[in-house]
Give the backbone structure.
Amino acid sequence: MTKHKVLIADPIADAGIKELQADQALDVDVRIGISPDDLLADAAVYEAIIVRSQTKIPAEVLNAAKNLKIVGRAGVGVDNIDVPAATKNGVIVVNTPAGNTISTAEHAFSLMTALARHIPQAHATVSAGGWGRKDYKGVELNKKTLAILGMGRIGTEFARRAIAFGMRVIVYDPYLSPSRARALQVELFQEVADAVKTADFITLHMPLTDDSRHIINANLLKKCKPGVRIVNCARGGLIDELALLEAINSGHVAGAALDVYEHEPPPADYPLLQSKNIIFTPHLGASTEEAQTNVGIEISRNIRNFLLEGTIVNSVNTPSIDSKTAELLGPYLDLAEAIGKMLSQLSPKGVEFLTICYSGKVSELDTALVTRAALKGYLERACGGESVNHINAPGIAEKLGLTVSETRPSDTGEFTEMIEIITGNEEEKASVSGTFFGISPRIVKINDYRVEADAGGHVLIVSNTDVPGVIGTIGTVIANHEANIAGMSLSRNQVGERALTVINLDAELTPAAREELLADEHIHSAKLLYL
């Protein structure tokens, strides 16, 4: 039995490692602290790689890792993984957003209370033999205004604790609905500047993106209330650190508490270290026994379940799917991909749009992955040597200028369920529809022709004039080239006009057979397809 190769590159809980090692279908290498050069050299060996924040998975590693299917981050952030490069290479990226939620929320809240009461500075003074009681007059949290930037899991937990301490909580999160904000007993602001201008404390709990980088900057700090205190336990780079230092030195900002930094660990000449009004911790947000155990076990199970069952949980670059849903969607994925493959060989040139119509029972499912399967099938021929899969298919479609959409027509027609894919441009279009006969996937419509054919294998599609003798000619040519017919479907919309013949073959028909068919004056096109 061929085993799935898994690399653990960063420390995770022993319980998580043991879960992977206990499965006989997995071959697990624990190489903590693997060098970038060794990772690049050996990446192609592995189907899965598990990291935390230390090991970086850049584009060059992903390009070299030809067998890699999934990268798991034991934690929330994935900024040490080149997600666009992973997506391009068809590698799923997953994380564990829930495992360290409480740990990080508690650490951030601890930093806020320590910041309010100067606890680290007072401790250092007493430890050095001093007292300095008058130097450390703090402020209460009760009745103060707290601005939370980012109301995901951690921000939400922080808000609950702040409300319990009697704080007024205002939030900025472009993805939080007003109704959800009301349920959480927080005030929602649409602009970050409005959220921070009355805040006594600000805490950040958002991912680092192009939009959020330096969201706390010199301009925003000027709009903050004098004496504000800032906590960052989210991601380094959310704060312009030099602008923060300047604001603290000027007295406009009373202090800050940082657990994350733009460069980790900070260099020896890191200028913020000179400030007595900043509290520093070495990225401890997730550093509790409970959190490390939780994320280690969670990422290990997610990796195992993907490799062995196809389950996708907490993916950042593809729809998540559990094992039951994967089993349910399996036949639809195969049918959609087969339809996409067939349509790619029947479509007009210069296709601008691709529309997938789901009707009947399939329309009630989450079809995001089915749409990706259809795109995969359609795009494989369009991309030359570029590999297309469920992960990178949407990005490739966008790069090609292909507008992709889904519809769910209310009229199911004669079938209890059907998947139809339509492609085209302003002048012409093509379509293929499929359904199931029992559990067997079938192609039931090509353009305006009602057909019935297997959705797999070798297929010959002939467009011909509806006159006597054409079917005999087709059969003779196929026989002369020693191909066997597995099934045949004839369709016409009007006597004597164009007809469509769809033939399933047991083996590939040679291009020479196609040329022989086209030599007949009544045969207008002959396409050899493989689904």
About this structure: The chain is about 35% helix and 25% strand. The CA atoms of residues 259 and 283 lie 5 Å apart. The longest strand covers residues 429-437.
